[in-house]
Amino acid sequence: MILIFGGTSDSLDICDWLNARKRNYMVSVATDYGEKLAKQHADQVIGQRLDEEGMCRVMREKAVSLVIDATHPFAVEVSGNAMNAANKMKIPYIRYERPSGQADHLHLVRDIDEACQTASALGNRIFLATGSKNLPQYLEKLPGKYVIARVLPVSEVVAACEQLGLLADQIIAMKGPFSQSLNKELFKQTGAEVMITKESGAKGGFAEKVEACKELGIPCVVIRRPSLNYPEVLTRIDELEKYV
């Protein structure tokens, strides 16, 4: 049994790749939305947050022989737990990580604090292309700024944005992928003066956001992806062939 830690479009692509090869696998995701998407690709889905102990239990009960970590590049806690659990259970662990696709002439920062500090000095209308997870932190650290948040079109996410005080004009509820032209139009329509995003790679639409900003002359603040000491990192799905 192969255990995939997912929640990304990359993990769904891996599911399709394994389906084509008739491999036995299951997917673990942390959200209801992720579970709905995963069930469109995989027969066996775990739809709950697992800590390290929970991961060990699943690996033991399901006789897992390989762990593929295809979580978001910023889900470092999940990745850390998955690595530790696999190590404890003496199971091979593979990290699948999309290439970053980093571009030149960006404002590269380490974390949310530095991102907000940098963006505050660059403009007043700030477009957040970072999702909803850390939205309270951004709003707290961007006082007096007009923040536009692009989030998933899920009712509880939109409700959370409203509870944080965002108005309808400040909430863009859309699901990607977003093309360069669509990003450009959204930035223009919202009057964005600066954009904050994460170094999410090709699948995360990183290049399309950066190029749209470049075309409009909008500063782009990029939070660098965290770096973990992964034992094995793959950047192409076909590289899994020798492991499965």
From TrEMBL:
GO terms assigned for molecular function: precorrin-6A reductase activity
The entry's keywords: Cobalamin biosynthesis, Oxidoreductase
Domain of life: Bacteria
GO aspect biological process, one term: cobalamin biosynthetic process
Protein's UniProt keywords contain Oxidoreductase: yes
Pathway as given in its UniProt record: Cofactor biosynthesis; adenosylcobalamin biosynthesis
PANTHER family: COBALT-PRECORRIN-6A REDUCTASE
Listed NCBIfam families: precor6x_red (TIGR00715)
Protein name: Cobalt-precorrin-6A reductase CbiJ
Species whose genome carries this gene: Paenibacillus larvae subsp. larvae
